[in-house]
Structures are given as C-alpha cells and as structure tokens.
Amino acid sequence: MKHLIQIVSSALFLLTLSACSAYEDAVSSANTPPIDWPSFIGRQDMKWENEAPTDWLQAPYLGNGMLGLMLFQEKAGFKNPEATNDKNVLSLHVGRGDYNDNRPPVDGRDHTWIYRGRLPIGFYRIRSKGDVTGVDWRLDLWNAKLVGTVQTSVGSYQIESVVHAEFDSFYFKVTAEGDEAVDFEWQPQEAHSYPRRVCDRNAARKIANGEEVTGIDKGFTSMPYPKAPEVEVSLNPNGNISRQELYAESGELITAWKVIEDTTDRSKTLVGSIAFSQAMGEALPQVKADMRRGLQEVEKGTYLSNHERWWNAYYPQSFVSISDDFWEQFYWLQMYKFASATRSNGMMLDVMGPWYQPGFWPMIWTDLNVQLTYWTHLTANRLEVGASLVNKTDQYTHNLITNVPEDWREDCLNAGTIFPADMVAPVGKSVADHMIWLLHDYWLQCRYADNANKMRDDLFPLLKRALNTNLRYIEEHPIDLGDGNIHFKNTWSPEYPGGRGVDINYTIALTKWAAETLLDINREHQLNDPKAAAWQHLLDNLTDYQVDETGLRIGRDIPFDKAHRHYSHLLAFYPLYDLTPDKDRDLLKRSVDHWLRITQNLDNKKDTARSVTGYTCTGAASMYASLNDGDTALSYLRMLPFNNVSCTTMYAEGNPVIESPFSAATAIHDMLLQSWGDTIRIMPGVPSSWKDAHFRSLLCQGGATVSADRSEGQLIYVQIDSPKRARQLTFKMEMLDPQFAIIDSGGIVQSVSLRTNADGFYQVELPADTSLRATVAGTDLAAIHPVKSSVKSANIFGLNSRYEEVVKGFKKER
C-alpha cells in the first residue's frame, strides 16, 4: 500500500508541474512576438561534414531517458575488442541506463566498484558494400532525429534514426543509393567489468616485468570474478533475440530487433528494444511488448510522428536566446541531452547516461557528479524530465537505510560515494555528507515545483534520517577542543589531497543546511517533531566555518594551499547560500579568487593535486555570476572547451563523465536569473559582451516564472508570473525608471508604483494567476526581437569546420 501511495504521489506531482508549465508559457508570451520554434531550434542542430566520427566523443547521440544510441566508425582496440577495422562498417552502439552488474557480495564485502558497475550491451555493424568515404549528417534537435547521408566508394545510403520518446524502442533506417547495399549485423559484448579488465591488464604487465602488483590493481584482481554466461542469440525472420544472463542468475538483459526490408525504395529499417531486470524472467515480456508496439507504429506510419510530438512539446516549456552563438547553442544542446539522458521514470543519472562507453567510473557518484547534473532542468522549467532523482530516491529508501549498520537503521540512512542504479552501497558508520548534498537537489526540485506537501511528506523523513546519521557520528566520535562547541572529528572534503580531518567546511555547511531546513519544514507545517530541539541545539553550538586570511579553509588544520578542481570547501556559498554575497561578499570573493589562483597555479607552485577541469570552470562561472561579475563568469565559462569537452559537448576526464556540460547550462541560468534566499535576481551576472539576451518562462524557487529582454545592453522588459497561488515576491533588477503594471488572467492591466528598499530590492504582493510587468518607458512589446543570435553563425557543433574555427577564436582571446 505504501508503494502505491508513493506512485500516486509522484503522478500528482508531475501533473501539477505540467499544469503550471502550460499556464506559464501562455502568460509570459502574451503581447510579445511568437517564436518560430522549428526554425530557432534548427539553428542549434549539430552537423557532421566530410569525415565520419571515430569515437563516442565525436558521435551523434539519441536517447529517451533509458535507451541510448551512438553512431561512429569504431576501431578495434582494448576498449572494444569486438569492433572491426573494416572500412565499410559503422558501429551503432546501444545502451540502457540501468543495466549494471548485480553480483552478490563475497566474504561479506560488496566490492561495488567491480561487482555492481555498468556493463556494455553491444552494437550493430552497419555494413555497406563500399568503404565509407564521408558523411553529411544532421542531428535534428526539434525532432530528436539523426538524418543524413553516408558516402561510400560505390555509392551512398541515407540514414534516419530515433530513440522513441514515449517507450523503450529505437529505429534506424538505411536507404541504399547507386550500387550500394547495406546490412545490419548484431555484435553482443561480454558482460564484464571494464575496471576489472583494466586492472587485470595492468597486473599482467607488472608481473611480466617482474614488478610488484600494488594498489587498486592488486585489490581488484585479488577478488574472485567468475565470468557471466555466454550471450544467447536467436535469429528469426519474425524477430531476433539476444539474451545475456548475469552471473549467479542475478539479472538478465534482453535485446530484441527486427529488420523490415522494402524493395521498392531499397530501404531497411531496424526496429529494436532492450529490457533489463534483476529478477529472472521479467525482461522478456517487457521487450516483447515494446517490440510489438514499435512494429505496429511503424506499420501504421505513426512511429516518427508520435516521437516527434513529445519533443515538439518539450522545447517550448521555456526559451533562452543570447547574442553569443556558441553559448546559446551549447545551452540548447544541454536541454536536448538532458531529456535524452533521463526522464521522471528513468534512471538516476550516473556519469554515462544511457550511452555506455568503457570507463573506470561506471556508476553514480555523489561527491559532486550527480548533484551538478540535477541543477540543469530547474531554472529551465523542465522539472518533469529531472524528477528521476526524486523518484529513485523515494523508490530505494529502504536500500539507503540498509546501507548503514544494523544498529543505526532505526533512525539513519546513507549513500556511498559510488553506487549503482538501486542505490545499494553499504558505507559503515560514516557521516552522510554526500547524502545530504543529494537531498539538497531533492529539496531544490520541491522548491522549484512549489510543492510543500512533497517536501513535508517525503523529503522531511529522508533528511531527518540523514542528519541523524551525522548526529550519531558526533555521538560516537566525540572531540573536546575546550571551546564548548560541537566539532566533527574526522570527515572528508572530496578529492582534496590530505583533505580528511577535524571540522571540515564541507561537513559543516551540509550539516547546517540540513538542520536549518528541517527546522523550517517543522515550523511551516507545525509538525512538532521531537527531534527539533536537538537540531536547534546543533545549530546553536556547531563550530563556525574555518576561515583564514585567504578565505574559507578546507578544515580546522587544513588550509587551502593545493590545486583543487573541486569546490567542496565553498559549498556554504554555492550552492547552499548559507554564506551569501549580500552578507559575506568580501569573504566569498576572497575565497573564490584564492581557490582559482591556487588551482590555476598562477603563483607557479608545484603540487600533485588535480587542477582545473570542466566543473572548475562552470562552478567559477556560477559563483562570479552570484557576485554580479558577469565578465569574469564568462571568462571561466570560455575555459570549458579546453577542458575535456568535445565538439558534441560530451565530456571525459579520461573516462566518460556527463555533469560538467550540464553545469555550464546552469552557469548560464545563473547569469540570467537567480532565485536563492527567497529573492529573485533578474539578469544579475550577464557579461557586458552579451548586449542582447531574451528569456521566457524561466522558473524560480517558489514557483514564480520570469521573462525578460535585454537589448543593446539595457534591460527593457521583465515579467514575473504567479501561477496557481498568491505570492509575496522580492526581486532585484537593473532597469532605468521602470514602469510597473499588474495584469490579471483576463488581460486587464493596472498600473502600480514600486520603490526599492535600502538593499535595492523591490517587493510586491501578486494575487494568484497574475503577472507583474516592468518596462522602460516607450517599450513596444510587439517590437521586441526574442531571438538574439545571428543566423550566419548557426550549427557550430558537431564534427565540422565551424566548431574548430570558433574554438580557435577562443584560444586567440586567451
């Protein structure tokens, strides 16, 4: 019954979001020019010209939040020994986001890294008669469809492909031209841990060289790792089945497909599906149902139109255009990628999404990766596609509880630094810092959705258990420093070398946020929770943030003096905003400046830490935007393309990781609109070079939406909408002599007079379903040009000469 209630609650949650989005789009677009969506999104399409992509970083990608496709001309090697070097073959890789190994523990140890990691599925060889000599492809974002031509030595063939938006099915059509002929060949891949293979190889090399096997190579290779059963492939004209049973009957993956041949136009259409279940016998019925539906839709001619309908409704939920073609296109590619990678009923996003490629970190990481990923959709007003974090946390609460030792399970829960899709990862008696940060993302989802009941009924008990885990840690690891304060004896600032010690700022910030949030929910809903006194005592007596002349330290005995790509010590500023630019500007600017000076090695000091990487750039951009320094924010954003980002906006740090490009979209949001601390800040960090910017229906914490226009360097139009309920709004904007009016749901306009307070904020009471509009005198809303980018600089991304030219320009600027 409890599970049923959770499902109904989630369904109502999403219905509420959909209703709000429809209202917001209608209201904020009133009296401003309409957007030609197909034309605008078409500017953002990726293109591949001349050379075929040769790896996943260059490849076009399609997905529906669970299944994923990637197309490239792969070369055989260690990462994929099943590949071929034949010049007439393209590889169509298939993935499923929740497909991970499910091996049982050995000797009481879970060995999560290699026993529970993501697994490869396989790929289709698209084999042509002639060798591939070139490509002309376009990823049509508006319809989420790959189209184009493959040129060969004897002719060419057309391609068309989608991963269906509404159910787990994929489609790839080839149409031969000239003397060409094309076939599909299925190649399954072994269900074997890639990190284990890497360590086996490393160990073998060391042994051959007479060296000692140490470290992670020794640890991984010393664990038993029997092979999973061989893949069973059954080929039949009526439909093909590939079945991978996991080791010890701990799960099964079914890949099904059929090729439909049409001799009249010389086309062949591959229709397929993939299902996975940890329970034996459940995957086959599901894959058969999805195949049946897919084939029926193809036969009726509705397969593509039903798929396209979903995507055509998805994009207009909000709108962003800026007079910076590169970043506008980068932004919209993240909106496409995010909806391709996850959905409300999809997996919680790990570092790969649905596009498996061999990597050493094949699971969900909670020391930064998953948290940054789930900021992308919030301000973008695309809450439904990002609800997977909330829904999966709800679904696997029991596993989070059993992750802690038995004597803590009555009132605690926790998540490991790494875990698979089901969140199983026993962690011992440690603090729940990563879990609390994950729940901050849960809280953000509720805040943007304006769903106080969800926060009370579901977040509150989760956060209560997580904070109690930290309280239990304090009880069992007491430390008295003679000042009467509460201290943490030995916790960790993620990734900082030597970053374990007393009073770590990462732990302090997250603990304070959890206690304050629980007390807020308890007061708002009059819950009278018996733990409230303990939370208040913790807040009143917890040691202060550790600070020195350079700003925020790592911890009590650990200064920030080594290069560090992660901003774990700065969480009190961003994203928690316990320390804010309003109250603590000097401390925060000093801290961020110092972090980046040391991390970029501007003082020419040597150390062994990992320095600037993708999320260093995006985190810096967001923080400087919060400090109202848009030019510095953009300068760090422009470092991103030189830090492991590819021409398709995919990202790798030697291995696939997905969060940093997503957090670049978050940084753009932070430049355009911020809504922390119960206040709205409109265009607070727009760089001076973005003379023109326009957005519609961007979402704020509390559920209000904002639309705005900046033209020739001046903010000339703002509209704040208050759907569903009345709101008291506090906001800040830089507009010359604004004229204010309130518009009701019937379109009646009433002028109002607003003045800023001593801090420069406006305040207004907005009734339900009304809007506040601010304009510069003489502004003609009908004359506003919402699209700020230039037509001549369209379609920068993909494997083409335009991308290289733009990036070269960035290098010259540096």
UniProtKB/TrEMBL annotation:
<protein>
    <recommendedName>
        <fullName>Glycosyl hydrolase family 95 catalytic domain-containing protein</fullName>
    </recommendedName>
</protein>
<dbReference type="InterPro" id="IPR012341">
    <property type="entry name" value="6hp_glycosidase-like_sf"/>
</dbReference>
<keyword id="KW-0732">Signal</keyword>
<feature type="signal peptide">
    <location>
        <begin position="1"/>
        <end position="21"/>
    </location>
</feature>
<dbReference type="InterPro" id="IPR008928">
    <property type="entry name" value="6-hairpin_glycosidase_sf"/>
</dbReference>
<dbReference type="InterPro" id="IPR054363">
    <property type="entry name" value="GH95_cat"/>
</dbReference>
<dbReference type="Pfam" id="PF22124">
    <property type="entry name" value="Glyco_hydro_95_cat"/>
</dbReference>
<feature type="domain" description="Glycosyl hydrolase family 95 catalytic">
    <location>
        <begin position="336"/>
        <end position="672"/>
    </location>
</feature>
